[in-house]
Amino acid sequence: MQADAATVALLRQSQRRRRATAGSSLLRVRALAADPHLFAMAAAVTDGNHRDHRVGGRPAAYPDWCLVLFGACIRIFGSASATARALSDQALWADVVATAQPLLTGEAEARIPVVGPNRDHWGYFCKHRVTPKVLQKLLHLHRDLAVARAREVGLLNPADSYPAGGYTRDHVVGIDGKVFDSPLRTLDTERVDRATGLIRAVRQDPARQRYGEAGTDGLVWGTKFAIASVRSPLANHRVILGIT
Question: Which of 130, 148, 178 delimits the end of a domain?
Answer without folding.
Answer: 130
